[in-house]
């Protein structure tokens, strides 16, 4: 018994010593904290202040993107996320509770504004052991208007959080150029607006501002304390970017592309309007495209929509390349518009290069007519005259095979294919060699102005809103590949492509304005086989035009790849549905008045009977009339109209010779002109349709007699050029089947024969 008591006493003593020691330690620690005011070397006052010190971020505004007149293209906006406080933990005793009091009423009201049912809202509001709830996708990305409507309902416990977003008020509007920005989470876990494509991405560091912050003291519930000191670091907003785009012209282009895209459904389509005097791009778009606000049309399956095609896509330009081949020939002095050459077929060794009418050509014609007709043979012979080395130097001076340096990412450089003799010939008419649209526009600026080449650019200036400091982009001359005189002469020849009798670009004429330009129909290489695709739709159809031709204010370049054509529809007609309305509306919008139509002089017709055919043709041509020879003799025996009649400049004079009667080529003639041939030969012609001749049953040069049956098919004026292009396309298909070489013959076909 005594031993047990002794053990108990010893145990009690141990406990007493333990608790006494603990008490002394705690008391000592407490006294130390009281006296020194520090814990582990840190001031207690500072630690206490931290618990009540709040920091809020002051978001910097992302810079806006504006058109040249200051119209908004992209700007910051706000969206809101709806949430509900369902716990009464912090406001149970408050006079104005900050939690959902009446769940049924709250659910009923919210169901009117967000796309979620009342029952689903109640399920969320009834969740236990949570402080607040959100409403999924239905409660996110709410507009400020919708937020204001919900706030007017004065529902306790309903609150919003704000997120910065990007707003593009014009919808599909130079979308690949502008790109888009979206909320992206950084390494620190905070999210911010970040450019993901286009200018939003490449100028992200310039557009992005620097956030500020505000520090202040609060009570335990988070309310700001009275007389609390605030520390503020101001935010620095991002720079604004002003573009060279003109909203009005860009809208013309977007609306037109949308309409034409719906009609022809091409694989892709590109169009750019540029001021050749400065290099400013006034409008630029493509199809496929997308809406940067909603992202509608932007999908991972459609790779083309992610590319800024006018900048990033390299393609074979086709006959539009002849613009630069012609300028090079003029600049070297080898182009004589009135000189003659034999059209039809040109040979590179054993390889034939055909004109686009099956290699038949048009006989011995002038180079000017060859340019009008887009004769490959004409340009192949001009290449002989100037030399392949000389032409290669001009290609380099025009900027082909190298990036232009436009302020946009992923620019294509293209490639000059110029190793073998046939490649050098095909390059002169735009096959084999690849280019970008920016290169073509840069080169064309030299032809449209004074021979000086301008760099295309899209950013006019950047402005720092914090200091109002501006950094402007100046026009940059990137070379002078041709003289001012050559530029003027080239435009004069290109005018004939649109307005000349044999011009392939008649579809692109704009009433009241002179247009200089060139059509193109280029083949597309199949990436699987390496050969060119076949079929009437498998081409890139294009047109580059400048107006007014004498002193161009605008250049417009349109390409359309693989449109879905039906019946008599042609690629050229499809392209004209983009070029014509946009160019015309843009010229009118810029107050460029239509030129007054020149009054055509009347010319008296002398008597040519008894003269040699050559002398008569020369005299008629010098009178600015068009000689038409019927027969294969050497002397003129009859004419229509007769002597003393007066004709307008440009009208036809029919002369009959002393040989066999032959029928001329009456393509594009009016019925009245065709009747003159019927009258002078005494053979009745039959006419099908109205308008102008698109087909004749008896081919040109055929000898006529009393039994000849001549049937002329006519079409209306707006159909005639389309018919001719369709006819050329049929011929091209035939040539392709026979030799794989046609108007835009390329090395790919030649190497796989």
Automatic annotation (TrEMBL):
Chain ranges of the PASTA domain: 599-659, 660-716
GO cellular component: plasma membrane
Pfam families to which the protein is assigned, alphabetical: PASTA, PBP_dimer, Transpeptidase
UniProt superkingdom: Bacteria
Localization annotation: Membrane
Transmembrane segments: 12-32
One term of GO molecular function: penicillin binding
InterPro entries tied to this protein: Beta-lactam/transpept (IPR050515), Beta-lactam/transpept-like (IPR012338), PASTA_dom (IPR005543), PBP_dimer (IPR005311), PBP_dimer_sf (IPR036138), PCN-bd_Tpept (IPR001460)
Keywords linked to the UniProt accession: Membrane, Transmembrane, Transmembrane helix
SUPFAM superfamilies recorded: beta-lactamase/transpeptidase-like (SSF56601), Penicillin binding protein dimerisation domain (SSF56519), Penicillin-binding protein 2x (pbp-2x), c-terminal domain (SSF54184)
PANTHER family for the chain: PENICILLIN-BINDING PROTEIN 2B (PTHR30627:SF26), PEPTIDOGLYCAN D,D-TRANSPEPTIDASE (PTHR30627)
Family the UniProt entry places it in: Belongs to the transpeptidase family.
Protein's UniProt name: Penicillin-binding protein 2B (PBP-2B)
Organism: Listeria fleischmannii 1991
């Amino acid at each position: 018994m005594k031993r047990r008591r002794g053990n108990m006493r010893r145990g009690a003593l141990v406990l007493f010593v333990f608790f006494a020691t603990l008490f002394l330690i705690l008391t000592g620690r407490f006294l130390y904290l009281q006296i020194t005011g520090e814990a582990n070397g840190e001031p207690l006052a500072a630690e206490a202040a931290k618990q009540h010190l709040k920091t809020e971020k002051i978001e910097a505004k992302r810079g806006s993107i504006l058109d040249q007149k200051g119209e908004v293209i992209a700007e910051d906006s706000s969206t809101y996320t709806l949430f509900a406080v369902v716990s009464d933990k912090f406001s149970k005793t408050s006079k104005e509770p900050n939690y959902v009091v009446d769940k049924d009423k709250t659910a009923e009201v919210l169901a009117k504004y967000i796309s979620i049912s009342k029952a689903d809202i109640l399920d969320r509001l009834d969740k236990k052991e949570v402080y607040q709830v959100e409403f999924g996708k239905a409660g996110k990305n709410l507009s400020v208007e919708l937020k204001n409507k919900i706030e007017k309902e004065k529902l306790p416990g309903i609150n919003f959080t704000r997120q910065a977003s990007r707003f593009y008020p014009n919808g599909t509007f130079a979308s690949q150029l502008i790109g888009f920005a979206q909320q992206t989470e950084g390494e620190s876990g905070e999210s911010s607006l970040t450019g993901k494509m286009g200018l939003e991405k490449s100028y992200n560091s310039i557009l992005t501002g620097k956030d500020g912050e505000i520090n202040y003291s609060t009570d335990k519930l988070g309310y700001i304390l009275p007389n609390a000191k605030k520390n503020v670091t101001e935010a620095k907003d991002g720079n604004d970017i002003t573009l060279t785009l003109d909203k009005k012209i860009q809208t013309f282009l977007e609306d037109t592309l949308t309409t034409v895209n719906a009609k022809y459904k091409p694989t892709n389509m590109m169009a750019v309007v540029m001021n050749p005097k400065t290099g400013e791009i006034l409008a630029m778009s493509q199809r496929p495209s997308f809406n940067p606000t909603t992202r509608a049309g932007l999908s991972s399956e459609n790779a083309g929509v992610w590319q800024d095609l006018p900048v990033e896509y390299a393609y074979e330009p086709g006959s539009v390349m002849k613009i630069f081949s012609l300028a090079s020939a003029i600049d070297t002095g080898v182009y004589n518009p009135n000189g003659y050459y034999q059209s039809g077929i040109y040979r590179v060794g054993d390889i034939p290069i055909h004109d686009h009418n099956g290699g038949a050509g048009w006989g011995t014609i002038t180079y000017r007519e060859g340019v009008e007709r887009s004769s490959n043979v004409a340009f192949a012979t001009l290449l002989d005259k100037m030399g392949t080395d000389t032409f290669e130097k001009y290609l380099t001076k025009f900027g082909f095979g190298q990036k232009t340096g436009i302020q946009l990412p992923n620019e294509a450089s293209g490639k000059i294919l110029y190793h073998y003799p046939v490649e050098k010939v095909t390059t002169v008419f735009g096959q084999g060699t690849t280019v970008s649209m920016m290169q073509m526009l840069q080169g064309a600026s030299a032809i449209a102005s004074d021979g000086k080449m301008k760099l295309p650019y899209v950013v006019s200036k950047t402005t720092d809103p914090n200091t109002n400091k501006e950094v402007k982009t100046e026009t940059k001359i990137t070379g002078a590949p041709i003289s001012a005189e050559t530029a003027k002469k080239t435009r004069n020849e290109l005018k004939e492509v649109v307005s000349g009798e044999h011009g392939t670009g008649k579809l692109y004429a704009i009433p009241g304005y002179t247009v200089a330009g060139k059509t193109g129909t280029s083949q597309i290489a199949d990436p699987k086989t390496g050969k060119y695709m076949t079929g009437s739709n498998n081409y890139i159809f294009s047109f580059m035009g400048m107006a007014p031709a004498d002193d161009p204010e605008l250049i417009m370049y349109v390409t359309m790849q693989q449109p879905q054509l039906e019946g008599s529809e042609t690629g050229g007609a499809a392209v004209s549905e983009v070029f014509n309305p946009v160019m015309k509306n843009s010229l009118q919008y810029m107050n460029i008045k239509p030129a007054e139509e020149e009054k055509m002089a009347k010319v008296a017709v002398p008597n040519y009977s008894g003269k040699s055919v050559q002398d008569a043709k020369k005299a008629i041509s010098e009178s600015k009339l068009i000689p038409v020879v019927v027969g294969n003799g050497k002397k003129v025996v009859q004419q229509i109209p007769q002597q003393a009649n007066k004709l307008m400049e440009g009208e036809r004079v029919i002369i009959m010779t002393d040989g066999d009667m032959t029928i001329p080529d009456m393509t594009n003639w009016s019925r009245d002109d065709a009747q003159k041939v019927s009258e002078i030969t005494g053979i009745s012609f039959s006419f099908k349709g109205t308008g102008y001749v698109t087909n004749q049953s008896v081919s040109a040069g055929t000898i006529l007699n009393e039994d000849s049956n001549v049937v002329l098919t006519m079409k209306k004026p707006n159909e005639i050029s389309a018919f001719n292009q369709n006819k050329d396309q049929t011929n091209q298909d035939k040539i392709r089947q026979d030799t794989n070489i046609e108007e835009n013959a390329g090395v790919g076909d030649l190497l796989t024969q």
